[in-house]
């Protein structure tokens, strides 16, 4: 295992400990004399992160079986949509661009739904950005981080255009030289997939941490909401706030997740599809809360790139989700749907101010 993946594993394990602690600060008193459900946990390393799957049930056999099924489904999904794994549907599409490629039902569905978000956001999310990401070194490609030359970026951007991706049933066709990457929506889709597996197995309470993506299944043990920590983008080792939620996805995108520094300048991994450079707005963290995990995942990236004004204009136009944006100067902007479920933790009142945007 290379150093990059070792660092990712250690960092994510630390995050899981914090998220687990926040999620479990709940009243687990017996209800009606029934014993509180037992916790069953499974870890899966997939999609370059450590995923924690916690299910709560007193049926140990059912919980263990459901978690094993979920882990298998995650690995199967990664084998289909990994951008680097030879033989995956995405690898085949990228290796034979301009040639129709037959893919699985699941891959076709994810691509189609991702394209809907690309269209809805006017290209602020664009799943064909992969060649630019690779040029910056924000992939598994060897060579490390680098700042590409302007002309190189300009040339690569000629291959970035989600509207030139066609899905016809199970057949996907992209423009010559185009390559796609589903990393901006994959974990969100995964959370919903695992939630379905668990609920279909009789699990009514679970919390899934998929590395920046949290999926709450039902309510917390004993009733009540799950408490999900929101990472402080100015100090990613801590949480500045907590969201109390049930049966939904909470997805955060931030430049602090993956970046490098060159000549005193910081470059993050969230690339603006229009410029080919890391997104530069006042937003340093975007959190989306909603019932559709794939949509939340894609919109967390898109709204980060949009900036505050454009993101809230988009929310007013489309609706269907809630949003929390953090800016460089310490402002936290939230939609009204989060007003009663967001809590700024003690000690952060001097660092951040919260404003509800209507």
Could you give the topology of this structure?
Blueprint: H1 3-23, E1 39-46, E2 49-56, H2 60-81, H3 89-95, E3 101-102, H4 105-120, H5 130-136, H6 150-157, E4 166-168, E5 171-173, H7 186-200, E6 205-209, E7 213-217, E8 226-232, E9 235-245, E10 249-254, E11 259-262, E12 265-268, E13 283-290, H8 293-306, H9 308-318, E14 322-327, E15 331-334, E16 342-344, E17 353-356
Parallel strand pairs: 15-17
Antiparallel strand pairs: 1-2, 2-6, 3-5, 4-5, 6-7, 7-10, 8-9, 9-16, 10-13, 11-12, 13-14, 14-15
Helix pairs in contact: 2-7, 4-8, 7-8, 8-9
Describe this structure in words.
- A hairpin with a 2-residue loop joins strand 4 and strand 5 (171-173).
- The longest helix is centred in the first third of the chain and has 22 residues, at 60-81.
- The strands form four sheets. The chain has a nine-stranded mixed β-sheet with strand order 1-2-6-7-10-13-14-15-17, sandwiched between helices. It has a three-stranded antiparallel β-sheet with strand order 3-5-4, covered by helices on one side. A three-stranded antiparallel β-sheet has the order 8-9-16, covered by helices on one side.
- Helix 2 packs antiparallel against helix 7 (186-200), helix 7 runs antiparallel to helix 8 (293-306) and helix 8 (293-306) runs antiparallel to helix 9 (308-318).
- The model is unreliable at 1-32 (pLDDT under 50).
- It is built from nine helices and 17 strands.
- The protein has one domain: T-fold, CATH 3.10.520.
- With 358 residues, it is of the alpha+beta class.
- It has helices at 3-23, 60-81, 89-95, 105-120, 130-136, 150-157, 186-200, 293-306, 308-318, and strands at residues 39-46, 49-56, 101-102, 166-168, 171-173, 205-209, 213-217, 226-232, 235-245, 249-254, 259-262, 265-268, 283-290, 322-327, 331-334, 342-344, 353-356.
């Amino acid at each position: 295992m290379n150093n990059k993946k070792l660092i990712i594993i250690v960092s994510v394990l630390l995050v899981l400990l914090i998220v687990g602690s926040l999620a479990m600060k709940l009243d687990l008193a017996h209800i009606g004399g029934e014993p509180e459900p037992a916790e069953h946990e499974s870890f899966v390393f997939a999609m370059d992160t450590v995923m924690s799957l916690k299910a709560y049930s007193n049926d140990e056999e059912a919980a263990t079986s459901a978690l094993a099924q979920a882990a298998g489904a995650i690995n199967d999904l990664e084998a289909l949509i990994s951008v680097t794994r030879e033989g995956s549907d995405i690898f085949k599409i990228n290796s034979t661009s301009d040639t129709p490629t037959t893919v699985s039902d699941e891959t076709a569905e994810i691509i189609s739904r991702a394209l809907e978000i690309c269209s809805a956001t006017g290209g602020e999310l664009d799943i064909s950005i992969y060649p630019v990401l690779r040029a910056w070194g924000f992939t598994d490609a060897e060579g490390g981080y680098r700042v590409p030359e302007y002309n190189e970026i300009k040339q690569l951007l000629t291959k970035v255009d989600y509207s030139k991706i066609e899905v016809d049933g199970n057949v996907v066709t992209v423009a010559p030289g185009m390559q796609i990457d589903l990393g901006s929506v994959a974990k969100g889709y995964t959370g919903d997939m695992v939630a379905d597996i668990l609920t279909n197995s009789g699990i009514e309470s679970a919390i899934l941490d998929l590395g920046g993506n949290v999926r709450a299944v039902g309510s917390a043990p004993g009733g009540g909401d799950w408490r999900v920590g929101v990472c402080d983008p100015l100090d990613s080792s801590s949480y500045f706030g907590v969201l109390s939620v049930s049966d939904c996805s909470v997805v955060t995108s931030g430049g602090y997740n993956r970046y490098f520094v060159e000549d005193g300048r910081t470059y993050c991994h969230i690339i603006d599809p229009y410029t080919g450079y890391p997104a530069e707005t006042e937003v340093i963290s975007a959190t989306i809360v909603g019932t559709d995990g794939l949509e939340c995942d894609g919109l967390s990236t898109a709204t980060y790139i949009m900036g505050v004004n454009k993101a809230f204009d988009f929310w007013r136009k489309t609706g269907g989700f809630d949003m929390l944006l953090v800016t460089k100067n310490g402002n936290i902007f939230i939609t009204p749907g989060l007003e009663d479920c967001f809590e700024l933790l003690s000690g952060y009142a001097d660092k951040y101010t919260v404003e509800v945007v209507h």
